[in-house]
Amino acid sequence: MSNADGAATRSGSTSGAVRVAYAFWITLVGTTVPTPLYPLYEAEFGFSSLTVTVVYAVYALGVVVGLLVFGRLSDQIGRRPVILTALVLSLAADAVFLAAVDLAMIVVGRLLAGLSAALVIGAATAALAELIQDPRHPRRAATVAIFANLGGLAVGTLLAGIVSDVAPEPLRLPWAIVLVLAVIAIVAMVGVPETVAQRSPVTVRIQRLYIPQHIRGEFLRSAVTAGAGFAALGVLTAVSGLFLGMVLHETSHTLAALVVFLAFTGAAFGQLLTRVLSSRTALACACAGLIVASGLLAFSMWMAALATLLVSATINGVAAGVAVGDGIATITMKTAPQRRAEAVSTFFAILFTMLGLPAVGVGLLIQVVGLRPAGEVFSAVVAVLALVVLLSLLRAGPTRARPAG
Length: 405
Hints:
Elements: H1 3-32, H2 38-45, H3 49-70, H4 73-77, H5 79-98, H6 103-131, H7 140-166, H8 173-188, H9 216-246, H10 253-270, H11 279-303, H12 306-334, H13 340-369, H14 371-395
Helix pairs in contact: 1-5, 1-6, 1-7, 1-8, 3-6, 3-9, 3-13, 5-6, 5-8, 6-7, 6-13, 7-8, 7-10, 7-12, 9-10, 9-11, 9-12, 9-13, 9-14, 10-12, 11-12, 11-14, 12-13, 13-14
């Protein structure tokens, strides 16, 4: 291959990676738009705080089901068709929310959003790993994937919060904006190079969870730590607006969005720490961060303090990001390409299960003991999970530092 051909190939791969990252990002943006709007939906459709957490869990359920049923689909038919399908589902979810007139439509919209996220997570993460191949910087693909993923989650909630505070039609306009951005992503995917050379027959069935045997310990420690962080992120996403309104009497949707924005932004930047730390050191820091964040969250609930809530959300996000970054980097660098999307799907199935179920548990607990005690109990559970992983790290052997990049 000539130098010109090589340059053209690299240019095409770079352009394709940018467009895949944008598709990944906008799909995840749509999943957190409802976060600051839940109090408005409560008032509009007359449902309870428990219903809010159940609606949130429906999204997580859609993600988990999608990951387990379609986790290998992009390995079979290619990355691009699956990413395009995810974008179409995301567009459909946006349209349902844009036209929503009752709780049933919200549930349908959240389920569609969950399925779209499930499809794009595995396919886009694998596609980026294959489009961004730089031996000098082996972790670059993982960095782009995490920023597209968590950056989308962060921007979606902040966009909705600001728009709903300063513009008319707070339950419509944010969805119209995201819908247009999703259409742009679909158009941008035209011409993106396909990275799967060998196709296989489509088998749509519930896949067994795939944890690569040779990285089993690393995989599980990352998943449990990140899952504990995701559990806290899920509860913050589902009930932070309720806490601000019921306890602090703050009605700003932007402020409610800021709590979640800080958490997901922290998660996006937290994964950068794994570029210079061994897996063991990174996870130890993540566990310590989760314990500190849980203590601050309990204090925030007990004292009805906004400042410590913001700090807790940020630290929790950074800790979760470290654990997620560690897990994704381990999978992308140490798993065979033909099973990479399957392993990524399994990793995120664990995370999103822990994202949704604790939110429902907290919603039920709120009905029994109230919002603040429920938050304190939940904080203790997250701290215990982090402590368990930390103790397991002390028994594990040392790990080598990762390659720079």
